[in-house]
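Please fill in the sequence for the structure shown.

STRUCTURE ENCODING:
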């Protein structure tokens, strides 16, 4: 089992609020770093954080901050995977098929897309991918029989409408992490 698979497995055990809070905490750690450091922006660091952090009990401000980050990344991921902006149809099909069969595999593939195409760091990408997979596909009992169009329709209902109304807009936005890295 790879490090990514191990981290995904641990993240899948968390509830939505814990994932949002963890996303905010990781964003803050990266933004506070004076330079991009392996110890801050790595799966090993995220794994240590998962072991050290208590489950639940996060304050509402942290959860809300994570929710804002998640919504932004969710919108970008939706545009990447469900629009014509991303032309790797084989990868999209692989992801959509995985999302019907294995949520951990879907999260791993989405993590790969988020790091490669949206340039998110590994910890941010994996938390975002797991949260998207859990939130978008939660409570959908017919996901196994869903088509890629159905999956994208379900996903569309979970994104901010103004963000997806113009699919020609850039899929990348400057985040606090980007600003910290550029500094």
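FILLED IN BY: designer on duty
SEQUENCE:
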């Amino acid at each position: 089992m790879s490090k990514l698979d191990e981290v995904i497995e641990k993240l899948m055990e968390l509830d939505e609020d814990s994932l949002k809070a963890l996303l905010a905490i990781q964003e803050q750690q990266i933004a506070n770093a004076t330079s991009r450091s392996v110890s801050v922006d790595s799966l090993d660091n995220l794994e240590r954080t998962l072991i050290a952090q208590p489950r639940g009990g996060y304050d509402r401000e942290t959860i809300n901050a994570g929710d804002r980050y998640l919504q932004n990344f969710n919108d970008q991921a939706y545009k990447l995977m469900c629009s014509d902006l991303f032309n790797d149809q084989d990868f999209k099909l692989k992801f959509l098929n995985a999302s019907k069969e294995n949520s951990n595999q879907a999260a791993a593939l989405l993590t790969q897309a988020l790091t490669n195409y949206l340039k998110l760091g590994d910890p941010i990408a994996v938390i975002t991918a797991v949260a998207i997979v859990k939130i978008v596909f939660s409570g959908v009992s017919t996901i196994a029989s869903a088509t890629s169009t159905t999956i994208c329709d379900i996903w569309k209902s979970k994104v901010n409408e103004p963000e997806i109304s113009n699919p020609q807009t850039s899929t990348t936005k400057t985040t606090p992490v980007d600003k910290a890295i550029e500094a």
